[in-house]
């Protein structure tokens, strides 16, 4: 058998040739991830007789190695897993939680949020959930043993990863943060002639023997090799030495949370997505539901009138998010009401088809709220390409099992803290809480009381792994989709779904198309560089939208199963370095 590396290369070459074209058909399973190595590992699992879960988990562990700036075993995420045989869909929330010693005002001094504290360094670290999550998914839904599923990740860490353009831009964006942590500097940077740490050059190979050892321990010993013993001790010691609050008890107490999928529908297609503590799934259901009411005949692609309705629906969904969403185990989150037909009808009914509604008239911003949790940049960072992080994995196997998994360390390179001697890069997911209700976080998002910091609580998330089912058979997955992009995640998912359902686009085109985003605050309409033609923008501006051109955002990874032919197609966003693969 060819080595994984040779195979990844061959696959990458073939796929690069395919990226610009319509997705190609596969008779077997199909996968889409943001990295050639992760897609190759997923395919390898399918070819070894594994199912969609084996493939997704193998890809997630490889992603932890090859894309440390996006996700990793020091992070957490959400997954939807559909069983093709029983027609059932399960949801696992393995997102990080606030440590026991976390407190509501831990990032506030003299009444103001201290910039950087919730994004950079040890105090930003929440209790990681990825290892518990990946292994639980494998145990409950997979067919292959952890030793097989983790093997590609261990091999990748030993062999080393090369510094890609993405690595470079992500690292440049976080260079100062990485330099503050000696272990992160040692792992991710190189010393120059003056002995200072700087970004390694393009093509430079970074070996990760510590991470390989940690992954090897997990493959043999299971989650306890991470949540107790030397790895847990190293994580807690590193964090505490740097002034953070995470303890070995926090790690030992970590538990994943099974949840009920959030259900909605769009033009006859059943949709299952992530419930709270994700705010993304609620927005996906609300916006699609509102669009169906506002445009029962369907949406013409890029029709300015339809776009206006979309933007106004999104604006209102993000107002609900700011008002109501948080961890449902800690406050009364009215999820059922928010996605109910009555509420969606009210939301749609409040839209003025002629002109933009001022965001402040829907929910006035908190008076005096200013600044952001970040040190070095203005509040809204998501649109900056070098700041993109988080990753999504979509798989549908030959038996119709499907996984949509979004996983993250939050900001680029997480907190920039690596637990000494383990290779584990720790998240900065604490920033997804409201450091002070009303103050925007790193994504410019404003959240409220339900998202205030409490020990053991899950921070509100935008991550929206989503499954869209066939009209003909509401138990058969037609589309698995998700994306990174912080606050822009739900709108990326919504637009891919609309491109497929409304415009009948093949999945590659649906993923490639330009994007449009609003998030209530700031009161701006973001349009990416391929988003809209000037004539369309003029119509929107005439309606009162303040348009902001943004280079690009998101990284949609999607797999489509054609309900008519049973053939599968996969698409990896050309905005990033991933590839989509499948089995002939
Ligand atoms: O859970 C969330 O919403 C964020 N931690 C996701 C971060 C993200 O997607 C960043 N990408 N640009």
Describe the model.
By secondary structure, the protein is an alpha+beta fold. It is 35% helix and 16% strand. Strands 10-3-2-14-13-1-24 form a 7-stranded antiparallel sheet. Strands 11-12-17-18-22-23 form a 6-stranded antiparallel sheet. Strands 19-20-21 form a 3-stranded mixed sheet. β22 (557-561) and β23 form a beta hairpin. The longest helix is centred in the middle third of the chain and has 21 residues, at 304-324. Bound molecules: 6-diazenyl-5-OXO-L-norleucine. 6-diazenyl-5-OXO-L-norleucine binds next to loops. This is Glutathione hydrolase proenzyme. GO terms for molecular function: leukotriene C4 gamma-glutamyl transferase activity. InterPro entries: GGT_bact, GGT_CS, GGT_lsub, GGT_peptidase, GGT_ssub_C, Ntn_hydrolases_N.
Brief sketch in words of this structure:
This protein is an alpha+beta fold.
Name the helicity range.
25-40%
Average pLDDT confidence is 92
* Low-pLDDT residue intervals, each spanning 5 or more residues: 1-20, 369-386
The bound ligands are: 6-diazenyl-5-OXO-L-norleucine
Q: Give me the side-by-side strand order of the main sheet.
A: 10-3-2-14-13-1-24
Major sheet summary line: 7 strands, antiparallel
The proportion of residues in beta strands is 15-25%
Q: How far from one another are the termini?
A: 17 Å
Strand runs, count: 24
Rg over CA atoms: 22 Å
Content-based structural category: alpha+beta
* Discrete helix count: 20
Q: Globular, elongated, flat, extended or rod-shaped: what is the shape?
A: globular
Family: Belongs to the gamma-glutamyltransferase family.
EC number: 2.3.2.2, 3.4.19.13
Protein name: Glutathione hydrolase proenzyme
Organism: Pyxidicoccus parkwayensis
